[in-house]
Specification:
Elements lengths: L13 H21 L5 H28 L5 H21 L3 H45 L2 E5 L6 E5 H9 L14 E5 L1
Antiparallel strand pairs: 1-2, 1-3
GO molecular function: metal ion binding; oxygen carrier activity
Family: Belongs to the hemerythrin family.
Protein name: Non-heme iron protein
C-alpha cells in the first residue's frame, strides 16, 4: 500500500507541499483504480489527470529549486524530463487494460516513493542546511564595538558599520551626555 501524506514529507514551501499532497491523493486514487474493476476510460482519465498535474508540479518545483539555489537543479530537471517522457511513452504504447492498470500501480508506487520521498526530500535537506548556515553566519556577523567617554561607567555599543564610520571619520564623535570624544575600548 502507498504511504499517506505526512508533514515529514514537507520541503518547506507551502505551494510545493500542497502539490505533493495532491500528488499523494492522485497516487492513491490511481492505485485504487488499478486494483479494482475499472473501465479503460477511468484508467485513461486518472492517467491524464496525474500526468497533467505532475507536469505543472515539476515546473513549479524547478522554479522553487532555482529560487533557493539548489545545486542539483539540472540533475533534478533531467529526472523530471525522464519521468514525463517515460510516462508519455508508456501510455501511448499500451493498449491492454490490464497492462495500463499495472502501469498505474507502478507509477503511483514507484514514482511517488522514489521521487517525492527520496529525491524531493533532498531539496528540503538543502533548504534546511542553507537556513542553518545563514543563521550561523548572521549570529557570527553581529559583533559590537565598545567605546568609552568621560562619563563614569558608561560604554557606547556600536555596530560594525558605525565602528567603521567612527574609525574613518576625520571629525571627532562625541558622547551626547558629556560631550567628550568617544574612544575605542574593545570588540565583542
Amino acid at each position: 500500500m502507498l504511504p499517506q501524506w505526512s508533514g515529514d514529507f514537507s520541503v518547506g514551501h507551502e505551494i510545493i507541499d500542497q502539490q505533493h499532497q495532491t500528488l499523494f491523493n492522485l497516487a492513491h486514487k490511481a492505485y485504487r483504480i488499478a486494483n479494482s474493476p475499472s473501465s479503460p476510460n477511468e484508467i485513461k482519465m486518472i492517467l491524464v489527470e496525474f500526468f497533467d498535474y505532475m507536469k505543472t508540479h515539476f515546473k513549479d518545483e524547478e522554479q522553487y529549486m532555482q529560487a533557493i539555489g539548489y545545486p542539483r537543479l539540472e540533475e533534478h530537471r533531467k529526472i523530471h524530463r525522464d519521468i514525463v517522457a517515460e510516462m508519455a511513452g508508456m501510455v501511448k504504447n499500451v493498449h491492454s487494460v490490464e497492462v495500463l492498470k499495472e502501469m498505474i500501480s507502478t507509477i503511483a508506487k514507484d514514482w511517488l516513493l522514489t521521487h517525492i520521498l527520496q529525491e524531493d526530500m533532498q531539496i528540503e535537506k538543502y533548504r534546511r542546511e542553507q537556513l542553518e548556515t545563514r543563521a550561523t553566519c548572521e549570529v557570527k556577523e553581529v559583533q559590537y564595538y565598545y567605546y568609552t567617554c568621560a562619563c563614569p561607567n558608561k560604554e557606547h555599543k556600536l555596530t560594525e558599520s558605525m565602528h567603521i564610520f567612527v574609525s574613518n571619520s576625520s571629525q571627532p564623535i562625541n558622547c551626547k551626555e558629556c560631550h567628550q570624544r568617544i574612544h575605542f575600548k574593545q570588540k565583542r
